[in-house]
Design goal:
By secondary structure, the protein is of the alpha/beta class. It contains eleven helices and seven strands. The longest helix is centred in the middle third of the chain and has 26 residues, at 184-209. The mean pLDDT is 89.
Length: 303
């Protein structure tokens, strides 16, 4: 993994940055595109990671051309002589790998009307960084720190759940070890839609059944299957929770994936597993089906 470090002289940096910004500030501009030396660029590591995976950098460097760098976005901290990037740190890092001499200066859209108060300025930067919805290179997990700073209620709920249940996140694809969330985005979406009560319902089941200690115990399809039972059987949540704790205890994800796929071989794996969970609950507790399979589709039963 790669990170870029620059030697800095604070007094010289302050003087240089003030000189670069002087004309734009004199004209009372709120935003301006300027050529900024790369050595005056940094990020807030409280919500951005300074390390980029080799896969991300490999993608950027192998497909590189001059147009790819585009315009970065940053907020000047004149008291430090630095511009804090809120968009483009990966491209800046890649440019230094491609040709540090050629790209010793880069174009930055400098935001000059950010709040003066340091705490409010940091929240402003974090909000800008976390709002990059169409930037596929900034993942929801990478935005987590920024969302903490702006006090995103979903993220704060996830933090409380993480402290209580001790799970972890990873950006690495593939199978998950014990206590590793299958998908940060899936958990965020479910907490956003169903609230903290669903989170406790899900994590209690996994913890009490021991599923949290099994490989892929927090897999996306497991979470969706338990979510669907939470959603479709609101009046039976307590008994469903008790049933699932006992039912899941001797099982593991591979078993569930294989058995659900065999039973519903014409459904996708996600739908197959959620129907397999529902079948188990219906049979075990004598509850009515809330969904059925018709023409290889999962259909909600009419009330």
């Amino acid at each position: 993994m790669t990170t870029i470090n620059f030697k800095r002289n604070k007094k010289e940096n302050i003087a240089e940055l003030r000189g670069i910004l002087a004309d734009a500030k004199r004209r009372k501009l709120t935003k301006v595109i300027l050529q900024i030396p790369v050595r005056l660029m940094t990020i807030d590591t409280g919500y951005q990671t300074p390390v980029r995976t080799e896969r991300e950098l490999d993608y950027l460097t192998k497909k590189w051309d001059d147009r790819m760098i585009g315009v970065l976005v940053g907020v000047p901290h004149e008291e430090e002589g630095l511009v804090y990037l809120v968009d483009g740190y990966g491209r800046m890092t890649a440019s230094q790998i491609v040709d540090a001499e050629k790209y010793k200066e880069l174009e930055i859209q400098v935001i000059l009307d950010a709040p003066k108060d340091k705490l409010e300025r940091r929240k402003f930067e974090a909000r800008y960084y976390s709002s990059q919805g169409n930037n596929k290179r900034v993942t929801p997990l990478q935005k987590h720190g920024a969302r903490q700073i702006i006090e995103d209620p979903v993220v704060l709920t996830m933090d409380r759940l993480q402290e209580k249940y001790g799970f972890e996140y990873t950006a690495v694809r593939g199978r998950r070890g014990d206590a590793i969330i299958g998908s940060y985005s899936e958990l965020y979406k479910n907490i956003s839609t169903n609230g903290e009560e669903f989170g406790e319902f899900f994590f209690d089941i996994c913890k009490e059944s021991g599923f949290n200690r099994k490989t892929d115990g927090y897999a996306v399809y497991v979470m969706r299957s338990i979510r669907d039972l939470y959603k479709y059987y609101p009046e039976n949540r307590t008994e469903i929770k008790d049933f699932l704790v006992k039912w899941l205890r001797p099982l593991d994800y591979r078993y569930l994936h294989a058995k659900s796929g065999a039973k519903y071989e014409l459904l996708g794996p996600g739908n197959a597993m959620t129907m397999y969970f529902e079948d188990a609950v219906v049979e075990g507790l004598g509850l009515p089906h809330k969904r059925t399979v018709q023409d290889n589709k999962v259909i909600e039963q009419s009330a």
